[in-house]
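Field reference: "sequence" (input) and "structure" (output). Example, GDT1 family protein:
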Amino acid sequence: MDWHLLGLSFITVFLSELGDKSQLAAIALSSRGQSQKAIFFGTAGALLLTSLLGALAGGAVAELLPTRILKAIAAVGFAILAARLLFFNNEESAESE
């Protein structure tokens, strides 16, 4: 095992996830809780479990559907999100004002 690559990957992901909502929840809980270690290990375990479940679900979907169909589904999904942001976001902000 390449320990340098493992450490570099860990540090990169760790730094990119610092602003995540789970980190903010952990900070909020630790300010009220008695045991900061329990809160840290609980949130770290939850993050690991959700990552594991996401990887397992992604692997299962990749086994069922061909790569070309998965890419098409992702492209259509991103196009729908882009269209909603471009065309429908302005109407909601105008109504709230």
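The radius of gyration is 20 Å.
The chain has two domains: 1-64, 65-97.
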